[in-house]
Amino acid sequence: MFLIFCADIFRLKYVTSMQGYKFAAETLEMFLLSTVDAALALQNALVAAESLSLGTVPVGSIRNDPTAVADELGLPQGVYAVAGLAIGYEREGVRRGLKPRLPEQVTVHNETYSTTNLDKCLNEYDQTMISRRTYDGRRVSLAGEPEKHGMEYGWCEHTARRCTTCQRR
Question: What are the Nitroreductase domain coordinates in residue numbering (predicted)?
Fold first, then answer.
């Protein structure tokens, strides 16, 4: 099963108009609120499915072509796909265990934000992802830049490429 979780501002605009008011909530707060609501619904579905011993995979790439997704699903203006969730039975021997997450030292902060050990933790995580071959066949290419053969391609390189539209400095 593949579920797509959508943020829905259309419904809020509709209700506001239906009640005779002018919608005035075109704000970052409304965008975040609707997006977070969709993400929380996805998380609840994921937890429920996994409690039934089903495998799940959140799919953020559903946002790669929002217009095509909106067209396919017939979404009105103000409704957008936040993420997908694949749910099913795992095939024996296919999964290489749960994907490791970034270490808590770089994601959980006490009292103040800390970059202590950031480089060390990112390097260790990168090596874990490289050794697991997590990004084999999933490399992000940069336009106009030839592939670097022999370069270790881990989380840091993958993430940096996903966050850029320009060449390296």
Answer: 20-89
Residue 149 has pLDDT above 80, yes or no: no
| Cα 95 to Cα 104: distance, rounded to the nearest angstrom | 24
Tell me what pLDDT residue 92 has.
Answer: 74
Could you count the other beta carbons within 10 Å of the beta carbon of residue 48?
A: 12
The set of residues, in sequence order, having a beta carbon less than 8 Å from that of 60 and lying 6+ positions away, is: 83, 84
Q: Give me the residue spans of the domains in the chain.
A: 1-95, 100-169
Helical (H) or strand (E) element with 48: helix 28-51
Asked if residue 166 has pLDDT above 80, the reply is: no
* For range 16-45, the mean pLDDT: 96
1-95 belongs to which homologous superfamily?
A: NADH Oxidase (3.40.109.10)
pTM of structure:
0.76
Per-residue b or e along 54-88, where b marks 16 or more CB atoms closer than 10 Å to that residue's CB: eebeebeebeeeeeebbeeeebeebbbbbbbbebe
Task: State how far the alpha carbon of 120 is from the alpha carbons of 101, 125, 131, 161, 168, in Å.
Answer: 15, 9, 17, 20, 22
